[in-house]
Amino acid sequence: LESHERTTRLVEVEGVRWRLDRAQKGDVDQMFLVGMMYDIGHDVAQDHTEALRWYLKAAEQGHVGAQYNLGAAYYLGYGVPQNYVEAHKWFSIANVTGLERAIVNRDIMTKLMTLDQIAEAQDLKRDWMARHQTR
């Protein structure tokens, strides 16, 4: 049993190294999965700040899951100070880039925000979309 545990741990470490290597080389799906690993503490120590760093990298490349998770992080304050404007922005971006369920969370955010905050979030989304549509 002890030998099995050492072998299993070695496989896990090699899997983490492989995933990190692929993410560092620009594989957007692996960037997202590295973010998830840190977010939930799977095979690495849980670190919401590190998760957000990887989510942002993937989101900037158009990964809708990472965009959605950034919205959730800002809504809940995981790894960042709670920020409804940023949460609204990222949920809106995730919706535009293909995740219809993100609109539900965006609408929840809207109920918690002032009209000025909603306008700011919409402006931020438009700016982000304009910068990323040229890629």
Describe this structure as you would to a colleague.
- The protein is an all-alpha fold.
- The protein has helices at residues 2-24, 28-40, 48-60, 64-76, 84-96, 102-112, 115-132.
- The protein is globular.
- The N and C termini lie far apart (51 Å).
- 31% of the residues are buried.
Entry keywords:
135 residues, mainly alpha, 0% strand
> Count of helices?
7
SSE order in H/E notation?
HHHHHHH
Strand tally, please?
0
What is the gyration radius calculated from CA atoms? 17 Å
The helical percent reads over 70%
Structural class designation: mainly alpha
The residue-averaged pLDDT reads: 89
The largest sheet is: none
Spans of at least 5 consecutive residues with low confidence: 1-8
Q: Short description, anyone?
A:
The protein has 135 residues and is mostly helical. It is built from 7 helices and no strands.
What's the topology here?
Elements (H helix, E strand, L loop, with lengths): L1 H23 L3 H13 L7 H13 L3 H13 L7 H13 L5 H11 L2 H18 L3
Helix pairs in contact: 1-2, 2-3, 3-4, 4-5, 5-6, 5-7
